[in-house]
Design a protein that fits this description.
The complex is a heterodimer of chains A (311) and B (247). Chain A has 8 helices and 7 strands; from the N terminus they run αααααβαββαββαββ. Chain A is an alpha+beta fold and 311 residues long. Chain B is α/β, with parallel strands linked by helices and 247 residues long. Chain B folds into 2 domains: 131 residues, Rossmann fold; 101 residues, Beta Barrel (OB fold (Dihydrolipoamide Acetyltransferase, E2P)), CATH 2.40.50.1020. The radius of gyration of chain B is 21 Å and the shape is elongated. Chains A and B meet through helix 4, helix 6 and helix 7 of A and helix 1 of B.
Chain lengths: 311, 247
């Protein structure tokens, strides 16, 4: 066997082998069997090895058809060639299998993560948006009444209600807002409620000056205060005062909301019921903690305490 | 001249009904009431022909107030949103106004009332409504009764057991016995079924009050309660108890 023959032989064998490997890679990129992966690798390597050997022999015979002794050596080395081809392609297919399976897994994880994030965001959005239909319809009814009694005030209430509704729509969940902003929003809500309930409802808000720049999730306080107002107003026929106090603690912003209730007829001991579940859930989704919202009853006062971790 | 009562806890909500009523010269507004207690008082005092009644009100809601009246007058309910009630209103053809309501809708409700007041149909509809209205979660937690002219709200935990007695149900509580003119079925449907078990055709028992169960006569059982009272258990009652208590 001359040097020429040896180089041509090795060039053709290796080029063909590389071609087959490329075919395998392409094949595996677009199709990965779910079951029987290892059989698939064996079958595909075996198939391609056979194909490779047949084409290789046809080519070599075509080129060197006059050199009997060389063709004889090709015949004799066929088994060895097949073994080499089969092993190479087997390795290639196995590597592809590992690589693409791995890639698919990573993509699936990413998709799952993304789906989870979307679900979480949607839930947070929904929790934040939970507007009590009672509040909306009764406010509209008040405006309807005011139109003939006091048109100026009717107009003012339309504006307040619009600002309130706009506030529920715009905020980004992830952004925390300064207490100052949240308290302004709360005032807006309280003004509307005071028009509805007249003299029966009064409110007191106490907050330390330096708390005002501390941050909390937007629209967190309004449902808590709404709950307190409902609980207070519907549990007694007297006039009621809702007290909201804000204090800074180490690492936390501490907010308490107090409403009167009648211990004779209500039993607020049943957990955080009373419409606070959505607040609880929201705090859990945002801070992964279930102990940030607490309620307690002291004599005829029901107290809701919420702690917001400060970073 | 017909007399009308407006019962609603929001002053502006009352004023819009008042305003719409100005177009009806032969109707007189006897009184405005801010809660169910006032409502009860003035219904007895004025015996109005029609009341406008809100459902969500302080202390006792509109339905609980109606339950305490012997013969409720014609009613037009006014409510903002009440998932528990609206179906019942529709089923019993009792008129209701969803706030905020227009003058036209109001006029239609008044027309319905005037048409029905000749036949007296609305009153029977109201009775049927009260029997069937599914209780709101709040109502499941308590029972409202009237005793010696006073209204008493009994929290569910304070009720030991209920006992049928003619047209009434005797409610045994830690503060004594109260009567309410309702059926046993009504209580069975409206009190929390995880707490109250019908142990017998005429008995409904708060299971947290049970201390002991003893065989009694043939095939029967007797429940002993913390208060010392004893309550009979029928065969079906026994299997219900078994199910709830997980024996």
């Amino acid at each position: 066997m001359s040097i020429l023959e040896a180089s041509v032989d090795s060039l053709i064998s290796n080029l063909l082998l590389a071609g087959c490997c490329l075919l395998i890679i392409n094949n595996m990129r677009y199709y990965l069997p779910r079951k029987e992966k290892y059989w698939y690798v064996l079958v595909i390597s075996f198939g391609f090895a056979c194909l490779w050997l047949i084409i290789l022999r046809l080519l070599l015979w075509g080129i060197f058809h006059r050199d009997e002794s060389y063709l004889d050596s090709v015949n004799r080395s066929s088994t060895l060639r097949f073994a080499i081809g089969f092993l190479t392609m087997g390795c290639m297919a196995s590597i592809c299998l590992l690589w693409y399976t791995q890639k698919e897994q990573t993509e699936m994880d990413a998709r799952k993560q993304e789906a989870e994030n979307l679900a979480k965001e949607a839930e947070l959005f929904k929790l934040r948006q939970q507007l009590q239909p009672h509040f909306l319809f009764n406010s509209l009814n008040s405006i309807s009444a005011l139109v003939s009694i006091n048109p100026e005030q009717a107009r003012k209430m339309v504006h307040q209600l619009s600002d309130f509704l706009r506030g529920t729509l715009k905020k980004e969940e992830k952004e925390l807002v300064p207490l100052e902003e949240e308290l302004q929003y709360l005032e807006l809500y309280l003004e509307i409620e005071k028009v509805r309930f007249g003299h029966r409802l009064s409110t007191v808000i106490q907050s330390d000056e330096f708390c005002r720049s501390m941050k909390l999730p937007p629209l967190l306080l309004q449902p808590i205060v709404e709950n307190a107002i409902k609980f207070g107003l519907y549990d007694t026929t007297d006039d009621i005062t809702i007290r909201i106090a804000v204090r800074a603690e180490t690492g936390y912003l501490n907010i308490t909301v107090e409403n009167p209730f009648d211990p004779q007829t209500s039993s607020p001991k049943k957990g955080t019921g009373f419409g606070l579940n959505s607040v609880q859930r929201r705090l859990y989704l945002l801070f992964a903690r279930n102990d940030l919202l607490q309620t307690s009853a002291v004599q005829n006062l029901f107290i809701t305490t919420v702690k917001i971790p400060q970073s | 001249m017909k007399t009308v009562l407006i019962i609603d806890d929001e002053p502006l909500a009352r004023s819009i009904v008042k305003e719409y009523l100005q177009s009806y010269p032969d109707i007189e507004i006897a009184q405005e009431c801010g809660d169910g207690f006032e409502g009860l008082k003035f219904i007895q005092q004025y015996r109005p022909d029609l009341i406008f009644l809100d459902i969500q009100m302080p202390k006792i809601n509109g339905f609980e107030m109606l339950e305490l009246i012997e013969e409720p007058p014609a009613i037009i309910f006014t409510t903002a949103f009440d998932e528990y009630a609206i179906k019942a209103f529709e089923n019993h053809a009792v008129d209701y106004l969803l706030k905020p309501f227009s003058k036209e809708r109001f006029a239609k409700a008044m027309q319905n009332w005037m048409n029905q007041s000749h036949t007296g149909r609305q009153k029977s509809n109201t009775q049927a409504l009260l029997e069937s209205v599914s209780a709101s979660p709040l109502q499941k937690q308590r029972v409202v009764v009237k005793m010696a002219g006073k209204i008493k709200i009994i929290p569910m935990e304070d009720i030991h057991y209920l006992e049928a007695s003619d047209d009434y149900v005797r409610i045994h509580t830690k503060e004594g016995v109260f009567l309410k003119n309702k059926t046993m079925n009504h209580f069975e449907q409206n009190l929390d079924p995880q707490v109250f078990v019908r142990t017998h055709r005429s008995w409904l028992v708060n299971i947290t009050e049970i201390t002991r169960i003893e065989p009694y006569e043939k095939e029967g059982f007797l429940l002993l309660l913390k208060s010392g009272a004893s309550v009979p258990v029928s065969k079906t009652g026994y299997s219900r108890l078994k199910q709830i208590l997980g024996w």
